Amino acid sequence: MLTLIKQANIFSPRHLGLCDLLIADGRIAQIDASIELQGENLSLEIIEANGRLLVPGYVDSLAHITGGGGEGGFNTRTPELQLHDAVRGGVTSLVGALGTDASTRSLGDLYGKARALTDDGLSCFMYTGSYEIPVPTLTGKVRDDIIFIEPVIGIGEIAIADHRGSQPCAQELARIASDARVGGLIAGKSGIVMTHVGDDPQQLGLLFQVVQDFSVPLSQFYPTHINRTESLLEEGMEFARRGGSIDFTASTTEHILAMGEVRASEALARALEAGVPDNCLTISSDAQGSLPHFDEHDRLDGLDVGSISSIHEEWVRAVSQHQVAIPTALAAVTRNPARTIGLKRKGEIAVNMDADFNLLEPGSYAINSVMSRGRWLMRDGKITAKTAFDY
Ligand code: ZN
Question: What is the mean pLDDT of residues 268-280?
Fold first, then answer.
């Protein structure tokens, strides 16, 4: 089966302009100003894009696919991610992670959920480990998890500068990062260490110390929640200037913003303005993570749940409210995260890449259609993806 998209305004994320795009066997086979196909018995679907934007499917480098939270008692455990929510949010590749709780939640469950999302049409990967040290694993070793378990691309979220973490020392963190690195080298994966950064004043100090005292490259670490405060944003920019990738969290609430968080779109704009190389900047959703809210006496009075569609909203906001160029804003949710976490056929519209893309309405950027690995998961605003329970 071939699919030919006619006259789409393609952002690879680079702007390619109006082109036709041919999809064969789940991959992008050809991109040209005009593609005409002839032949009898050709199984060909032709889609008129009518100038809609065609952008890479979003790559979400951090989503709590089995749920997160649980920090206010068992009834605050957040629910797992639904396939349809990811599709509606334009996310075609994502990386699942445990979080604070590796006791009532497990890596086995995470693995099962990642495989289920992939079977249902997405490309879902996972981090081994959790906030905790010693690191929980599936095989008994970080290195072996990365080498032998196909969807495991690295480790995370390892918590630093957070009261919910294990307060690792530099030596421990260096050993974990080296294990992940060697596992990655052997398996041809990134072996990235997705690092949760909390709100302790130590900030990224431990990462800088590890890099200074041990032979671990700075780019092995991928710190997230860098938009948590103004001062962490400043330190994150320094980390990126030294060659690492930094990640901003898109899910937020008015309360969290009032506490000093910088919106991901604004953090992106500010980092660019400060001259940070744009290929070091990424935005992830932190989907299904818990977002506590408080009453006027600062007592917890409920929880919101992080949303996977927040990454679409934030790149669009970066364009419409902060004058970031479309290719630059898009790269933060497509090419940059794909490269940082080592997904070689994701995050770009180019020949031989996986056919993962979204069609967006011009002007509003509303998501009209979603294709993942050559399969339509949404067409003209209607979800076409089905789980085993949707028939
Ligand atoms: Zn986190």
Answer: 98
Q: Are 267 and 233 in contact (CB under 8 A)?
A: yes
Identify whether the C-beta of residue 153 lies closer than 8 Å to the C-beta of residue 95: yes
- The stretch 149-173 carries a mean pLDDT of 95
The answer to whether residue 90 is domain-embedded is: yes
Residues 23-39 pLDDT 10s: 999 999 999 999 998 87
What CATH code is carried by the domain that includes residue 367? Answer: 2.30.40.10
Q: Are 28 and 108 in the same domain?
A: no
| In the chain, % of residues over pLDDT 90 | 88
Length of the chain: 391
The whole-number pLDDT of residue 185 equals 98
Whether residues 121 and 210 fall in one domain: yes
Q: In CATH, what number is assigned to the domain containing residue 113?
A: 3.20.20.140
Judge if pTM exceeds 0.90.
Answer: yes
Number of domains into which the chain is organized: 2
Q: Is residue 389 part of a domain?
A: no
Q: How many helices (H) and strands (E) does the chain have?
A: 11, 19
pLDDT of residue 70: 80
Distance, CA of 216 to CA of 204 (rounded, Å): 15
Query: What domain range is 277 assigned to?
Result: 57-341
Q: Assess contact for 74 and 104: CB atoms under 8 A.
A: yes
Residue 37 alpha carbon to ligand 1 centre in Å: 48
pLDDT given for residue 349 in this prediction: 98
Catalytically annotated residues: 286
- Cα 287 to ligand 1 centroid, rounded to whole Å: 10
Å from CA of 34 to ligand 1 middle: 45
